[in-house]
Amino acid sequence: VSTELSQGCARGCDLCSEFNGCLRCSPKLFILLERNDIRQIGICLPSCPLGYFGLRNTDMNKCIKCKIENCESCFSRNFCTKCKEGLYLHKGRCYVTCPEGYAAANGTMECSSPAQCEMSEWGPWGPCSKKRKLCGFKKGNEDRTRRILQAPSGDVSLCPATTEVRRCTVQKSQCPEGKRKRKEEQGKQDNGNRNRKDTKDTKSGTKKRKNKQRGATVATTPASPAQ
């Protein structure tokens, strides 16, 4: 290995060697190590080339190779920002086709997220119900809806749900039908009691009249004196 030098290095290089090229770049520059047979040659660049991302630190800024398959440029070791030609980019990875539930955004090779659908605001929550009934239970469900205003590529299947359901609790209350039924039953019961009372009073009145007739004095015509 050749002796390290600080004089005669390439522009932007603070320390170099004849065998390995630049060993330390000037501040703000990135060092890129290129393989040349059994040697690694260091060069200094203002930005990292395709297939690499820049990592800054206090000692020296470095260009590090992307580790993502079929990635042309990346933001970090495991997050791609541009795939090779003909491939689709989705969440930092490269695909032959977009994953299920996603589609390429207009004129790009990036798979759009369902979250990019333009949705209306949620409507108000509906009444608490259970099996289409609105009363006579304690726990039920309530729902609310929204509309799809615009979908990527016009495919509404890529958009999120338009209905949301949650559990709800209602105060214990009787259904109007139940109240009406109880009222009718109460009315029937009152009528029955009234009829029984009327029957009893009728029987009592008949009995009194009979007793009165039995105790009444029968008027008789006096016999004529004998001639």
UniProtKB/TrEMBL annotation:
One of its GO terms (molecular function) is signaling receptor binding. Residues 173-227 are annotated as: Disordered. The keyword Lyase does not apply. Keywords: Disulfide bond, Glycoprotein, Heparin-binding, Nucleus, Repeat, Secreted, Sensory transduction, Signal, Wnt signaling pathway. This is R-spondin-1. The keyword Chaperone does not apply. GO terms for biological process: positive regulation of canonical Wnt signaling pathway; regulation of macromolecule metabolic process; Wnt signaling pathway. Residues 183-204 have a biased composition (Basic and acidic residues). Activator of the canonical Wnt signaling pathway by acting as a ligand for LGR4-6 receptors. Upon binding to LGR4-6 (LGR4, LGR5 or LGR6), LGR4-6 associate with phosphorylated LRP6 and frizzled receptors that are activated by extracellular Wnt receptors, triggering the canonical Wnt signaling pathway to increase expression of target genes. Also regulates the canonical Wnt/beta-catenin-dependent pathway and non-canonical Wnt signaling by acting as an inhibitor of ZNRF3, an important regulator of the Wnt signaling pathway. Acts as a ligand for frizzled FZD8 and LRP6. PROSITE patterns: TSP1. Pfam families: Furin-like_2, TSP1_spondin. It comes from the Eukaryota. PANTHER family: NEUROHYPOPHYSIAL HORMONES, N-TERMINAL DOMAIN CONTAINING PROTEIN (PTHR46987), R-SPONDIN-1 (PTHR46987:SF5). It comes from Pomatorhinus ruficollis. Residues 117-172 form the Spondin-like TSP1 domain. Residues 11-111 form the R-spondin Fu-CRD domain. Belongs to the R-spondin family. GO terms for cellular component: extracellular region; nucleus. The gene is Rspo1. InterPro entries: Furin_repeat, Growth_fac_rcpt_cys_sf, R-spondin, Rspo_Fu-CRD_dom, TSP1_rpt, TSP1_rpt_sf, TSP1_spondin_dom. The lineage of its organism: Eukaryota, Metazoa, Chordata, Craniata, Vertebrata. Residues 218-227 have a biased composition (Polar residues). It is found in: Nucleus; Secreted.
